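Thread: quick sanity check before group meeting

JM: Hey all, I'm pulling together slides for Thursday and realized we never actually wrote out the predicted structure for the chain we discussed last week. Dropping the sequence here so it's in one place. If anyone has concerns about the input, flag it before I start.
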Amino acid sequence: MARSFTSQDLVALPRLNAAESVVLATELITVADAREKQLRPKKLPEAIGRSKGRLAAAVATLEALTRPHGGDPVETKTKPKADRLLDNAWSGTFDWLGGWCKLPPERNPSLDEAKELFKLLYPDGLSFTRLPYKLEWKESKARLDAIRSARHERTFKKLGGEAFLAHLEEAHEAYGRALHITAPKPESAPTGDVRAAFLATLAALRDYAARVAAHADPDVPGSEEVSAALLAPLAAWESRPSGSSSEAGDDAGAPAAPAAPPEAEEEALADPA
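JM (edit): ok, ran it. Output follows.
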């Protein structure tokens, strides 16, 4: 069997999960950027510079894919907020209209219309505001439609309640949008292949380490020092014991990464979710 001497075969990385590979790669890139400013000219050897660029691109992709999401915070806050707004709108109108219905005819010339409107909107009181979100939206819409079909906008106006009606309509519209009934739900960003990005980052780490190590030449003054400085984060990295948990977000149920070359000690990819 023919021997292979690529960086993927020769470089043995420490035990890493996805989050740790992001940290290690970022450390290496940071050290390289700082060291580059000290060089004369201020430029890394071309092969190392190109390899560093590939490593930066790989880790940027992996970092984006493993960034915790935990659900859309806007989504989880919008629905309850819109629900409270609509509940308060119907509750406030209930109190306002109920007050007009309690006045004697001489104090409320539109008493009959007020009672008719109240019966139309609140045959069962405010119980409809305690229904599940979408059923409440349906009941709210039915009441607003009834106001328009019975031309009770005039009743609101006679009783000085235009602000209540406007608030009901605005709250109902906002509720429909929040529930994605009257507005489509935004499409989620497409998810990428985390495992592929993880393995690409490991490959980029091996390539970078091999090219930096190859830069050291005892006949070139300073080259060994530069090589050692650039690889210092990798040399100092302390792996976790096999099978231990990590604060980086390991998940016992995460799928195992494909088999790696025997020289490397890659850990199963942690589930970023």
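AS: nice. Residues 73-178 form one domain. The two ends are 41 Å apart (CA to CA).
JM: adding both to the slides.
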